[in-house]
Specification:
With 107 residues, the chain is an alpha+beta fold. It has two helices and five strands. β1 and β2 form a beta hairpin. 33% of the residues are buried.
Length: 107
């Protein structure tokens, strides 16, 4: 990814697909916007602002899921990780973990 670029990506999980646009400026995640989701709106709305705020504040996709809306929270984290080309395994996934917040290939 070229820093200073906006990148769109999505994640697919048990609650459907979530698409995001992430903006990185000068090596810093400056914005993350939800473009669309198939998630249940009542669950998703509880997770959206809090998870994005945590990602922006910590500059990491490895943040706490919002209690009661774990699947929605994790879907947002995975979509942002995908946009940043980071390896991030959804904690709700049965797939083997590569390591949270690391670039693909362990970098």
């Amino acid at each position: 990814m070229i820093w200073g670029e906006e990148k769109r990506e999505k994640s697919r999980n048990v609650r459907g697909t979530t698409s995001v646009e992430v903006t990185v400026e000068n090596g810093t995640i400056s914005d993350a916007t939800i473009l669309s989701t198939e998630d249940d709106p009542s669950f998703f709305e509880r997770a959206k602002d809090r998870v994005i705020s945590q990602i922006l504040n910590t500059q990491s996709v490895e943040v706490d899921a919002v209690t009661g809306v774990t699947f929605s929270s994790n879907g947002i984290m995975v979509a942002v990780a995908n946009a940043l080309d980071l390896s991030f395994t959804n904690p709700n996934s049965s797939m083997q973990q590569e390591g949270h917040g690391q670039r693909k290939g362990g970098q």
